[in-house]
Design brief:
By secondary structure, this protein is an all-alpha fold. About 75% of the residues lie in helices and about 0% in strands. Helix 5 crosses helix 8 and helix 11 runs antiparallel to helix 14. The protein is flat, with a radius of gyration of 24 Å.
Length: about 280
């Protein structure tokens, strides 16, 4: 027993010895982003490398707010990300449930098409999508244009299909025998069982919406409808770049994501593991 515990300790120390340097390498750019956010523009490009924060963060953020109305843009990003995540999780769950539990003509073709859309680069569809939304529907500079077009997520559909396929069919058959309606089976039985998978998918979709830059840049032209990443991009001009403001904004965009992941990492790992085991 002693030799076994000693070998376990050695393996644990070796694993930590390998992972800690990797963690430091991964965290170092984030730390330098925070340091640069607290420095003036002249200090960022000075010959001397500073590893400790300075005292100019409030000044950089004040300049950022004056140039871009960043608080408003951040509020828009939060609202869009939350609404998008809720709607997309619901829609992908419904589609995944239908593909996992119902038999219909063309089911294999539908699954093949969904799989095929994963291989398509986003740039293939973004221009036709922009023309349809902006020219045909005339919905540019609206919340609907920001949220609705990206709602379909083929990876999320397949993710939820896998989760529902792993559930025992006997459970749903027993509910049908008891007279439970289909929508009640989906809402009251299937969705609670798929909660870990939905939590992991919600984190992925929230990140995708939070970091989305190209589509909000194309569909919005009014300053009052800019999301935070697009507002941050406006600081890069032809003759002047406010690097301190950009770093302050990057910190404001990164910090909520890190907090959300730290708080929900248990659900994220559980959802990924649930989708990988069958």
């Amino acid at each position: 027993m002693k030799s076994q515990s000693r070998s376990t300790l050695v393996r644990s120390l070796a694993l930590h010895g390998a992972l800690i340097p990797l963690a430091i390498i991964w965290l170092f750019p984030l730390w330098m982003m925070f340091v640069f956010a607290t420095m003036p523009d002249s200090g960022i490009f000075s010959a001397q490398i500073e590893l400790l924060p300075s005292t100019h963060f409030l000044e950089n953020f004040s300049n950022l707010q004056a140039d871009t109305d960043f608080i408003r843009a951040l509020t828009i990003s939060i609202g869009v990300a939350i609404i998008y995540t809720i709607l997309s999780v619901l829609l992908t769950s419904m589609a995944g449930w239908a593909l996992a539990r119902y038999q219909f003509v063309g089911k294999s073709l539908v699954i093949a098409i969904i799989l095929g859309t994963i291989t398509l680069p986003y740039f293939v569809v973004v221009i036709p999508q922009f023309i349809m939304v902006a020219r045909e529907f005339k919905m540019a500079n609206t919340w609907i244009a920001l949220i609705v077009p990206p709602l379909f997520n083929s990876l999320g559909v397949l993710f939820m299909r896998q989760a529902f396929s792993m559930m025992p069919a006997e459970l749903f058959d027993a509910a049908r025998v008891e007279g439970v309606k289909e929508w009640q089976i989906f809402l009251r039985i299937a969705l609670p069982l798929a909660r870990p998978t939905m939590a992991a998918l919600a984190i992925i979709l929230f990140l995708a919406s939070w970091n989305n830059y190209l589509w909000p840049l194309l569909i919005n032209s009014r300053p009052g409808m800019l999301t935070a990443p697009v507002a941050l991009g406006t600081l890069i001009g032809l003759t002047k770049v406010s690097w301190g403001g950009i770093m302050a904004g990057a910190v404001m965009l990164t910090a909520p994501i890190l907090v959300i992941f730290i708080l929900l990492q248990r659900h994220f790992i559980a959802g990924i593991a649930a989708g990988a085991i069958k």
